[in-house]
Design a protein that fits this description.
The complex is a heterodimer of chains A (437) and B (557). With 437 residues, chain A is mainly alpha-helical. Chain A has a domain of 27 residues. Chain A has a 3-stranded antiparallel beta sheet. In chain A, strands 1-2 form a two-stranded antiparallel sheet. Chain A is built from 22 helices and 5 strands. The longest helix of chain A is centred in the C-terminal third of the chain and has 32 residues. In chain A, a hairpin with a 4-residue loop joins strand 4 and strand 5. Chain B is an alpha+beta fold. Chain B has a domain of 350 residues. Chain B contains 14 helices and 15 strands. In chain B, the strands form 2 sheets. Chain B has a 10-stranded mixed beta sheet with strand order 1-15-14-5-6-4-9-8-2-7, with helices on both faces. A 5-stranded mixed beta sheet of chain B has the order 3-13-12-11-10. In chain B, a hairpin with a 2-residue loop joins strand 8 and strand 9. The N and C termini of chain B lie far apart (88 Å). Classes of the chains: A mainly alpha (437), B alpha+beta (557). The interface between A and B is large, with 56 and 37 residues.
């Protein structure tokens, strides 16, 4: 079932430290050989400073208590560099830890830089040292310290490129600390910068958007309002173009969000078209499920895809998030997904039939007869379904949904009126432009 | 046991975080190399090359910069078309130039009876001018045409131009001076009447006149105190607050002004000519709305300047408690004769250190004093004046109480230079409060009678921050001008602000320039009635002459 795993396609768009949670998930799910996962972890840990972690993994992988000499040397090097950077950043760190001193800072950046230089002898070299120190702490896995230092650095930094890099770093740190509210703020700030910044080439901007969308998955599938916001972000023209251009696999998460979301129905039809267009570049059971229901009207195929979707969700690091509740483990997104998927099948099926046998419906919904009947009764009771149940014949009777002739005429007249109004407005606008000229 | 796991290449950013530069790594394999990338959407229509039916007003279509080459629009350029000025050119009339003694008052007010006769003519002329300006109004015109201004001093052909400084260089200057040192305090001050703080447009107060009080506008070299300080070598640079504030706020000025610079020995004196622009107050200098151009119009730039100067003087005396109780200082007013009634003013002679071997002494004015919590505070008193709400678009009587911020914002826009200079003078004098009066005409057609609608107080430092007046930039300008003048040889020079362009020039002038050798003698009786009219005619003649000079100067430049 590793067939639909997207980790190899996600990893090139993530920071190294953000790949570790994905590897942890894969290890739990036993999708791959443990040795390969551990080896991948060691490869990732190269260039980072988490040497102790690498040593532990090495011992597990090779079942030995010995560690390679290069790891021992690396550890000594890391400790020495930590001391050196600590000394370089000490003046500014000491200042930031002094409550009384920090009170002197103002909203004026130039004033702050001047004040620091005059009274505390903190200049550009010390501010640069703070950035390097934050980077080092991040590579050591001290995400909390890195976040604090990067926040202070961005308040003093005058280089926009470095400030942008620090913002990416703070976002990564907040994600890894699972501070979803703060991470969401940083994400929005970063999005504003990416959308308004003048990039060296459009390719860089597209790549920044793709990276932003990948990093945002951590937030949107953990934040309370994330299912809605992922649609708001991914469904924008610019971001949808980036998905179509270089990251079609992100359609899985957008499709899932649309299925489990009840507030973004109006955009759903347009998204179905996107799914249809992109079938040649990316498909998985979730996108194919939507195609079966809304493009091909293949209800048997949809039913089969639903079972495959369950497997895909359980094995996806973002969708398969597990919640423990008193000796009971559940995946809330899977339950919600299956519920809404059944609803989609049912809605479309009912739209093209007048009488539906309860047994056939139960079979298509993957439920037994009593469950299906209870489900339909709940729908009727909550006014989502305009229907009646005939207990004698065991069938659901759909109420006709046809508009009569008069209502159709009124609808057409309204549309005609709207188009006429728009045409007249354009003519008047053009005439006024001529007059002004 | 699962499948073999290969995570692939994960990029590492050694210098920070975020996506790598794609032009370096070429990490997007699925995009062809060396092909320029332009964002597009698969739902975009193809065949745009010959799409004659494109809808430019469709807001749902996102503007794609790659498609800009196809967005041809035919925008007619109307800038080459403009109306011809139908007004006939003014006929020059030459005659003797009326000059007043050294300590003269402001120009004499014309006889009100004669004025009343011409009011009807002015009304008709004003209506015609307003219609004319209305027809010529152009929303794209950023500023009124600068050609209507003239230089504040006649540029003579024998003058040599030493330097030309655009205001853009002034904006970058910065210089910090230490706190000044008080050398001497002269004069006497009366107390401020705090009941004027409670004036509102509903309980307005009539503006009174003070014909018996003497106001002095003495230039630097005529000041006996400054002469004494110069002889004692207290400093090398000498000026007054009016002259310094004109330099400090030069980038905001639109009207032309001139300052005389005299290099004597190792000393530098900044002077003003008698009767120069520095004695008057500008009105609507930085406004977008043009003022009437006729000299005789009560709303012309010159008429408004005279009116504003009078309002300012009268206001500064009316808001005092005039019960004879005065605060006196080290010396009496150095310009007043014995027994003369003098306006309330104190002169602070202060010294700033510009360099290790360079000091600047300036005479700074404060106008009043007030005791707050048994502590003495100095005040400066100035008045803004409203002449016709149609020009500013903000009627003070309606807006001053409910939208004071809007009124102040409009004045800051229309009189940026005047307010900046007042603030600079208050800062130079270290006044504790600036009092601004809002004075309006009783009727827009009557420029002799006014009412006080409100009085507001500001801290000079806070007000400077509010109007973006930077102290270091102010002193940077002064320092650069001083350094420039110190390099000149001994002699007399004049700094002239160009009437049309934001720049200032420095000319060398003969030693006897601007000196007044006129001996008053009686004129024929019919000419004595209207000496200002002759002055106006002379001004127009100056305009004609000055145009020729400007062309020559441009040719040289």
């Amino acid at each position: 079932m590793a067939e639909y795993d997207l980790t190899p396609r996600m990893a090139p768009n993530l920071d190294r430290h953000l790949v570790f949670p994905l590897l942890e998930f894969l290890q739990e799910r036993q999708l791959y050989d443990d040795d390969h996962i551990l080896k991948a972890k060691i490869d990732l840990l190269n260039n980072t400073n988490m040497v102790d972690y690498a040593m532990d993994i090495h011992k597990s992988l090779y079942h030995t208590e010995d560690v390679p000499n290069d790891m021992v040397d690396r550890r000594a090097e890391v400790v020495a560099r930590l001391k050196s950077l600590e000394e370089a950043a000490a003046p500014l760190v000491a200042f930031l830890q002094n409550e009384a001193a920090v009170q002197e800072l103002r909203a004026d950046k130039q004033y702050n830089l001047q004040m620091l230089n005059d009274r505390y002898q903190i200049g550009p070299a010390q501010i640069e040292a703070l950035y390097q120190y934050a980077k080092f702490q991040f590579e050591c896995g001290n995400y909390s310290g890195a976040a604090d230092y990067l926040y202070q650095y961005r308040a003093l930094c005058t280089n926009s490129e470095r400030s942008l890099s620090a913002l990416w770093g703070k976002l990564a740190a907040e994600i890894l600390m699972q501070n979803w509210d703060i991470a969401l703020e940083e994400l929005n700030r970063l999005k504003e910068i990416i959308d308004s910044k003048n990039f060296a080439s459009p390719l860089n901007q597209v790549q920044s958007r793709i990276w932003l969308m990948h990093w945002s998955l951590f937030i949107f599938f953990n934040h309370d309002n994330g299912r809605t916001q992922i649609i708001d972000l991914f469904n924008q023209d610019k971001y949808l173009n980036a998905i179509q251009t270089s990251a079609p696999h992100l359609l899985r998460y957008l499709a899932t969000a649309f299925i489990v979301n009840k507030r973004r129905r109006p955009q759903f039809k347009d998204f179905i078209k996107v799914i249809q267009q992109e079938q040649h570049s990316y498909k998985d059971p979730i996108t194919e499920f939507l195609a079966c229901v809304y493009v091909n009207y293949d209800f048997d195929g949809a039913q089969k895809k639903m079972r495959e979707c369950e497997e895909v969700i359980l094995n996806d690091p973002f969708l398969g998030k597990r919640v423990e509740e008193s000796n009971f483990s559940t995946v809330p997104l899977r339950d919600e997904f299956l519920e809404n998927a059944r609803l989609f099948i049912f809605e479309t099926y009912c739209r093209i039939h007048q009488r539906i046998d309860m047994g056939v419906l139960a079979e298509k919904l993957n439920l037994n007869y009593e469950e299906a009947e209870r489900w339909i009764v709940n729908l009727i009771r909550s006014s989502k379904l305009d229907a009646k149940i005939d207990s004698e014949t065991g069938a659901v009777i759909m109420e006709p949904n046809h508009l009569n002739v008069y209502e159709q005429l009124i609808d057409h007249t309204k549309a005609l009126n709207g188009r006429t109004y728009k045409l007249v407005s354009q003519l008047l606008e053009h005439a006024q432009a001529q007059t002004t000229r | 046991m699962g499948k073999a796991f290969d995570i692939g290449a994960v990029p590492f950013n050694a210098e920070g975080w975020g996506p790598p530069d794609s032009t370096i790594t070429g990490s997007n394999i699925n995009l062809p190399l060396n092909v320029p990338f332009a964002p597009f959407s698969r739902s975009d229509k193809l065949g745009r090359i010959a799409d004659w039916t494109r809808n430019f007003n469709n807001p749902t279509r996102s503007k794609n910069p790659a498609d800009a080459v196809f967005d041809f629009t035919n925008d007619d350029d109307d800038d080459t078309f403009h109306l011809v000025d139908p007004k006939p050119p003014p006929r020059p009339k030459f005659g003797p130039k009326w000059r007043f003694p050294q300590q003269r008052q402001l120009p004499q007010r014309r006889d009100e009876e004669v004025e009343a006769k011409k009011r009807e003519q002015e009304k008709e002329r004003a209506r015609r001018d307003r219609l004319y300006h209305m027809n010529r109004s152009n929303p794209n015109q950023q500023r009124r045409e600068a050609a209507v201004f003239k230089s504040s001093v006649d540029i003579q052909p024998e003058w040599n131009m030493h330097d030309q400084i655009p205001f853009s260089t002034f904006s970058k200057l910065s210089f910090t001076v230490p706190e000044p040192e008080d050398l001497l305090l002269c004069g006497a001050l009366e107390y401020y009447d705090r009941t004027y703080d409670r004036i509102t447009p509903k309980n307005e107060r009539r503006l009174e006149r003070f014909k018996n009080r003497n106001f002095f506008k003495v230039t630097t070299t005529d000041d006996p105190i400054i002469r004494r300080l110069a002889n004692e070598d207290k400093a090398t640079v000498f000026a007054t607050d009016t002259i310094l504030s004109t330099l400090m706020c030069a980038p905001r000025s639109v009207y032309s002004w001139d300052i005389v610079v005299q290099r004597v020995g190792n000393k530098l004196f900044f002077d003003k000519r008698d009767g120069s622009q520095l004695d008057l107050l500008s009105v609507h200098e930085t406004s977008q709305e043009p003022l009437p151009e006729s000299k005789d119009d009560i709303n012309s730039a010159h008429s408004l300047s005279v009116e504003a100067a009078y309002i300012n003087q009268n206001f500064s005396q009316q808001v005092l408690i005039r019960d004879g109780n005065k605060v006196t200082f080290d010396e009496a007013n150095p310009f007043a004769n014995e027994g003369e009634e003098v306006a309330s003013v104190a002169y602070r002679y202060r010294r700033w250190k510009l360099d290790d071997d360079m000091y600047l002494v300036a005479r700074c004015e404060v106008h009043s004093v007030v005791d707050v919590n048994k502590q003495r505070s100095f005040l400066t008193l100035n008045a803004l004046n409203e002449f016709d709400p149609k020009y500013s678009g903000v009627d003070w009587r309606q807006k001053l109480e409910t939208q004071r911020g809007a009124v102040l914002a409009t004045e800051l826009k229309n009189n940026a230079n005047k307010l900046a200079k007042w603030t600079a003078q208050a800062l130079l004098a270290s006044a504790d409060t600036m009092k601004l009066g809002y004075v309006s005409r009783i009727h827009p057609r009557d420029h002799f009678n006014h009412v006080i609608l409100a009085v507001v107080g500001y801290k000079p430092r806070d007000f400077a921050a509010q109007i973006n007046l930077n102290t270091t930039n102010m002193w940077g300008i002064v320092k650069s001008i001083v350094d420039l003048c110190m390099k000149l040889n001994e002699g007399k020079y004049v700094l002239v602000k160009d009437p049309s362009k934001p720049q200032v020039r420095i000319y060398e002038v003969p030693a006897d320039a601007f000196e007044n050798d006129y001996v008053e003698e009686p004129l024929p009786e019919d000419e004595q009635v209207q000496p200002p009219s002759e002055g106006a005619e002379g001004g127009e003649a100056t305009t004609t002459t000055n145009d020729v000079e400007d062309k020559q100067i441009d040719g040289q430049a």
